[in-house]
Design goal:
- By secondary structure, the protein is an alpha+beta fold.
- It has one domain: Peptide deformylase (Peptide Deformylase, Alpha-Beta Complex).
- It is built from 2 helices and 7 strands.
- A 5-stranded antiparallel sheet has the order 1-2-3-6-7. A two-stranded antiparallel ribbon has the order 4-5.
- Strand 6 and strand 7 form a beta hairpin.
- The protein is globular.
- The N and C termini lie far apart (53 Å).
- The protein binds nickel (II) ion.
- The site of nickel (II) ion has 5 residues, from helix 2.
Length: 153
Amino acid sequence: MKETELSIRVFPDPVLAKVAKPVKEITSHHRKILSEMAQLMYEASGVGLAAPQVGISEALIVVDAGSGLYKLINPRIIIQEGTQANEEGCLSVPGITIKVKRAKKITLCAMDESAKEIIIEAEDLLACVFQHELDHLNGKLIIDYGELPKPKK
Ligand code: NI
């Protein structure tokens, strides 16, 4: 499959609800997707984007929360501490924000574009954005955190 032009998928596109596949071997194809994802993220003034959001069900994310661009492959959280809750938006769920409770501080393990394993420590906004993008890889959106109507007593 060759992706030439990617676009941001919007809820309820079924690709957003799928669990993304881990990348077994990083190729120029993945590097190209990551750079196109970064371009789309910046064009949309977003702070993060996950591959399912561009219709690709693979474990790739890009994040830039103001401290530089991360392009990560197969990211996973290995340590999490504390809690924070922020109003979050999502390029795939335009027009709404939802308050989501997440870990305040995380340590991530991932691969970079050259297949090198890297460890990233993040807190506050950056930690929140990483967790949001990891949710996308698990088919989870901010609306899945929405409060359900309380049952009547
Ligand atoms: Ni999102």
